[in-house]
């Protein structure tokens, strides 16, 4: 029997968090080896295990996988969270990419200078309410199903829930104009594997604070 997937990254959300979410939602236990210092990262690089000298890196099924999108696609397909055919996969990809764009804006927030942070936050809220959430609200309304694609839990749903919770950390009432997304959040949050991941003490990581931000800047020269 293959061992648990092993995740190599820092003790922060970053690009690894969506991988943690997807594994957890699939009910897959995983181990984490944290990059605590610049030297830890340099060792991985010098050992030749990082194809493009970058993390995230996930050891799974005998592979040392890099590139976030490739890792997520593999996990989604392996655990039957990637649709039943090419068309469903295309829709999942479109939804995931949209959510990823929004989440990327949120990830950048911690790195914004103080004088631009408020403007960046306002842009996140504007994009969430005008560009991204209306798409998901309409999708749920148009097909009348519980999930975004194929009336079955997929990577798109898991990714969207993660994104919703990230935006709610910026603006807690962000879903007030989106009743179907409110219901979606309630449903998906109560899927047993996801509910477990949302409990205190899980491998879900907290938002970035000043201490972890300083550590990340030091390790990755950002």
From TrEMBL:
EC number, as in UniProt: 2.5.1.18
Domain spans labelled GST N-terminal: 3-83
InterPro entries: Glutathione-S-Trfase_C-like, Glutathione-S-Trfase_C_sf, Glutathione_S-Trfase, Glutathione_S-Trfase_N, GST_alpha, GST_C, GST_superfamily, Thioredoxin-like_sf
Keywords: Transferase
GO BP terms: glutathione metabolic process; xenobiotic metabolic process
All copies of domain GST C-terminal, residue ranges: 85-208
Example GO molecular function: glutathione transferase activity
CDD domains hit by this protein: GST_C_Alpha
PROSITE patterns, sorted: GST_CTER, GST_NTER
One Pfam family linked to the record: GST_C_3
UniProt record similarity statement: Belongs to the GST superfamily. Alpha family.
Protein name: glutathione transferase
Organism: Pterocles burchelli
Source species taxonomy: Eukaryota, Metazoa, Chordata, Craniata, Vertebrata
Gene giving rise to this polypeptide: Gsta2_0
């Amino acid at each position: 029997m293959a061992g648990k997937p092993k995740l190599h990254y820092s003790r922060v959300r970053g690009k690894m968090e969506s991988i943690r979410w997807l594994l957890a939602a699939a009910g897959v236990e995983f181990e984490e080896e944290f990059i605590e210092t610049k030297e830890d990262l340099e060792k991985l690089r010098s050992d030749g295990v990082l194809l493009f000298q970058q993390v995230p890196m996930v050891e799974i099924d005998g592979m040392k996988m890099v590139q976030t999108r490739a890792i997520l696609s593999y996990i989604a397909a392996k655990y039957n969270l990637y649709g039943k055919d090419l068309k469903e996969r295309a829709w999942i990809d479109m939804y995931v990419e949209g959510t990823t764009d929004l989440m990327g804006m949120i990830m950048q927030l911690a790195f914004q200078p103080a004088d631009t942070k408020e403007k960046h936050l306002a842009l996140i809220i504007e994009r969430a309410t005008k560009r991204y959430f209306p798409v998901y609200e309409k999708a749920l309304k148009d097909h009348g199903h519980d999930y975004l694609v194929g009336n079955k839990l997929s990577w798109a749903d898991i990714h969207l829930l993660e994104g919703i919770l990230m935006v709610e950390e910026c603006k807690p009432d962000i879903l007030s104009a989106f009743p179907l997304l409110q219901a979606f959040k309630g449903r998906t949050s109560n899927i047993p594997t996801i509910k477990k991941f949302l409990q205190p003490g899980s491998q879900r990581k907290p938002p970035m604070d000043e201490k972890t931000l300083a550590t990340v800047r030091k390790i990755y020269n950002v």
